[in-house]
Specification:
This protein is mostly helical. It contains nine helices and no strands. It is elongated.
């Protein structure tokens, strides 16, 4: 799950370069401070002030754009959540020896997307059951393992947050488009 979240975060580097028209080095330098906050706090919300500052100062995003897009992205654009939550449910199914049908997997995917949009952006430990239990139920997977997995949720949650913060910064740069705000 951690590797999946890392992969999702890495996908947003070339997306920022291609669609946000910013160099890879510039994007990486702009993202690094917000990623440090994300890593240490496991909170996109705690990373928000640094994201706004770096988007404006380093990525040339207008303050108004950063002030609108980034809080919205933190609230509803948790790009790593559907994949990570679905991964936990599939892992539980595997441990129970269950083979979900294609219909169950499709229902679980849809549930994972809707849950990621509809749940509050709290650290993974706080929203773990509310996020993963409905996906398990959609797949017919028992919930008994979830309390045990909560004990190790800290590590994947770090990488979920890193991926989300990286994606949020790429999105705000992409929304800004090719225009670069200069303060000269």
């Amino acid at each position: 799950i951690s590797l999946a979240c890392i992969g999702i975060g890495l996908i947003f580097y070339p997306l920022a370069v291609l669609f946000g028209r910013v160099s890879l080095g510039r994007f990486a330098r702009a993202a690094a401070p917000a990623q440090v906050v994300a890593f240490s706090t496991q909170s996109s919300l705690a990373s928000l002030p640094v994201m706004v500052e770096r988007a404006v100062d380093e990525l040339g995003v207008r303050r108004a754009t950063a002030g609108l897009v980034l809080p919205l992205a933190v609230a509803v654009f948790r790009i790593t959540s559907p994949v990570a939550n679905l991964g936990v449910a599939i892992y539980c199914a595997h441990l129970f020896g269950l083979e979900p049908s294609a219909g169950q997997l499709l229902a679980a995917m849809l549930t994972a997307v809707l849950i990621s949009i509809g749940t509050v952006g709290l650290p993974g430990q706080a929203s773990f059951f509310a996020s993963i239990a409905p996906i398990c139920i959609a797949m017919g997977v028992p919930l008994e393992l979830l309390p045990l997995l909560l004990a190790v949720e800290v590590v994947p949650d770090i990488f979920r947050t890193l991926g989300n913060v990286t994606a949020d910064l790429a999105v705000v740069r992409i929304v800004q488009g090719g225009e670069v705000e200069t303060s000269d």
